[in-house]
Design a protein that fits this description.
57% of the residues lie in helices and 12% in strands. By secondary structure, the chain is an alpha+beta fold. Among the domains are: 7-151, Butyryl-Coa Dehydrogenase, subunit A, domain 1; 157-281, Butyryl-CoA Dehydrogenase, subunit A, domain 2; 439-575, no CATH class. Helix 1 (7-16) crosses helix 10 (338-370) and helix 10 (338-370) packs across helix 16. The longest helix is centred in the middle third of the chain and has 37 residues, at 283-319. The protein is globular and about 75 Å long.
């Protein structure tokens, strides 16, 4: 079964949950209207289905290869990337000053979801380019900003080089050295787990590398950020000599085989030429511009893979005849079996909740960058700060369940690779690890985002949910969300009250707090969707949205109660066992 973009669902969420009209009223996009958005989504859906989806299986089977020192993408990837660039998809929401189209980031979210559903391995390349563009635009000097036009067009791609064999999450342990050498630096070191770190699909690759000067202080405060191109530039801006940065091996991975994950060596000869981006020793702070965007996109990957898993499972359940359904006269498709329907509804309601939360966060990005009111920009920045770790963490955890259920619906055939169900589960497994593990996302939410501002931003978000619940007409759904919201406030208060006394205590329950927040806020999105459907009044739409909301409230929302109890009572059991007794 191939992929078809859920255009109606996407447009519904953009319009009624993410506030598309408010986004289109922001300065710079006044000429964009709903018809234009619909036309772009339609074309993006066709490109995803016709050009990218056929690559998914090919990429998984062939994988990326390192041949004679060059990384070869799977069959069809290079041709598809050329078409991708020719159509201008990478520049959709990029600054027109650098050749972008200046369209809303919210629109980019929907288009990005499509290409990830179609072929995640392919989509990782433009994802990283988009993130690198943001970092370079925000922190690069004038000379470095000349790279942006080539990157926005897709002619040059971007990466980020953070991790080293001894420095995973703890980037303060990075050992790559950058030695001053005239107007540039020479870098020596090794980086691992570099997605699309090398390939031949684009003319050049712009690496953003974390390294430290020889006299830099220890720890993360001594890191600086450097632009290291694969090919150096001549004085006239044309491509020159190959820089001293190479892919020395590719990782053999559980999933996303079509995406090369490289071990990159810098400075095997004279040193890799790099140019300082931003201030010395501010590298990690500057890199977070790139990482925060990537975290939001990884949360969107969870939506995309869940959507495709649901589509495949639904198609199989409608066609597969197995067993007798009570009341039926003969063998019927397995979608008639109650437990299969349960699994499909878990998949559908979870995916809808994840998409709603991700798109709402995407609209915050538009307001942060374009809202003319400084107070509103500050509000949306805080809101985005709270939502990003939840979108990244809760979404990707839930995607493990959804893609696994996709295998389960197929039964034994799901365990057979030819159906594609197993690939989606394998591909999804990286998402809780990418861009800071979900434990890191939870610590960010409970620490920086909750304790860091005394609960202000999370409190404002809870106030908004409560106001909705009070005025909502969907009494049963509203009441369930409202009750769990009170627990979420109590969990937040518990962490705030105990953080200063015992930092280990909040760390022990942070993951459960993140999951509790995601479960409640995801339910809020489904309740909002039901309210919007009721206003529209189209019977089939109302029935679908009501079923999803009520199923979620009955089957998924109760998990929030367990998360709440763990937050308020579970810290001691995490910390009481001495390390030597594990």
């Amino acid at each position: 079964m191939t992929y078809r973009a859920p255009l109606a669902d996407m447009q519904f969420v953009m319009q009624h949950l993410a506030g598309l009209d408010d986004v289109l009223a922001l300065p710079g996009v006044e000429a964009v209207d709903g018809d234009m958005i619909a036309a772009i989504l339609d074309e993006a859906g066709k490109f995803a289905a016709n050009e990218l989806a056929p690559l998914d299986r090919t990429g998984d089977l062939e994988g990326a290869r390192l041949v004679d020192g060059k990384v070869r993408a799977p069959t069809g990837f290079t041709e598809a990337y050329a078409k991708f660039c020719e159509a201008g998809w990478l520049g959709l929401a990029q600054d027109p000053a650098f050749g972008g189209q200046g369209l809303p980031f919210l629109l980019h979210m929907a288009v990005s979801e499509m290409r990830t559903s179609a072929c995640m391995a392919f989509s990782l390349c433009p994802l990283l380019s988009s993130s690198a563009i943001l970092a370079l635009k925000a922190h690069g000097g004038e000379a470095q900003r000349t790279y942006l036009e080539h990157m926005v067009s897709g002619a040059w791609t971007g990466t980020m080089l953070l991790t080293e064999p001894q420095a995973g999450t703890d980037l303060g342990a990075v050992k790559t050295i950058a030695t001053p050498n005239g107007d540039h630096y020479l870098l020596h070191g090794q980086k691992i787990f570099i997605t699309w770190g090398d390939h031949e699909m684009a003319e050049n690759i712009i690496h953003l590398v974390l390294a430290r000067l020889p006299d830099a202080p220890a720890g993360s405060g001594g890191l600086s950020l450097f632009l290291v191109p694969k090919y150096l530039l001549n004085a006239d801006g044309t491509l020159g000599a190959r820089n001293d940065i190479t892919a020395v091996s590719l990782e053999h991975k559980l999933g996303i085989h079509g995406s090369p994950t490289c071990v990159m060596s810098l400075g095997e000869r004279s040193g890799a030429v790099g140019y300082l981006v931003g201030e010395i020793n501010r590298g990690l702070a500057n890199m977070f511009t790139m990482m925060n965007h990537a975290r939001l996109e990884v949360g969107l990957e969870a939506v995309a893979l869940s959507e495709r898993a649901y589509q495949q499972a639904l198609a199989f359940a409608r066609e597969r005849v197995q067993g007798n359904v009570v009341g039926a006269s003969s063998n019927t498709p397995i979608i008639g079996h109650a437990d299969v329907r349960r699994m499909l509804l878990v998949m559908r309601s979870a995916t809808d909740a994840m998409r709603g939360l991700a798109y709402v966060a995407g609209a915050c990005v538009d307001h942060v960058h374009h809202n003319p009111d400084a107070d509103r920009r500050e509000f949306y920045s805080a809101r985005l700060g709270v939502l990003t770790p939840i979108v990244k963490g809760w979404n990707t955890e839930l995607a493990q369940e959804v893609t696994s259920l996709g295998v389960q619906v197929h039964g034994g055939m799901g365990f057979v690779e030819e159906t594609g169900a197993a690939q989606l589960m394998r591909d999804a497994r990286i998402t809780p690890i990418y861009e800071g593990t979900n434990g890191i996302q939870a610590q960010d939410l409970a620490g920086r985002k909750l304790v860091g501002d005394g609960g202000k931003a999370i409190g404002e978000l809870c106030d908004e949910v409560e106001a909705f619940c009070v005025q909502s007409s969907s009494c049963h759904v509203r009441g369930a969300i409202h009750a769990r919201l009170a627990d979420l406030r109590e969990s937040a208060k518990y962490i705030l009250d105990n953080a200063s006394q015992d930092p280990q205590q909040s760390g022990a329950v942070a993951f459960n707090f993140m999951m509790q927040a995601g479960t409640v806020l995801g339910g809020w999105q489904l309740a909002r969707a039901l309210e919007a459907a009721e206003r529209i009044g189209e019977p089939n739409l109302v029935q679908r949205k009501r079923t999803c909301a009520e199923f979620y409230v009955a089957h998924l929302l109760p998990r929030a109660d367990a998360f709440h109890r763990t937050v308020t009572t579970g810290a001691d059991s995490v910390n009481q066992l001495p390390v030597e007794l594990f």
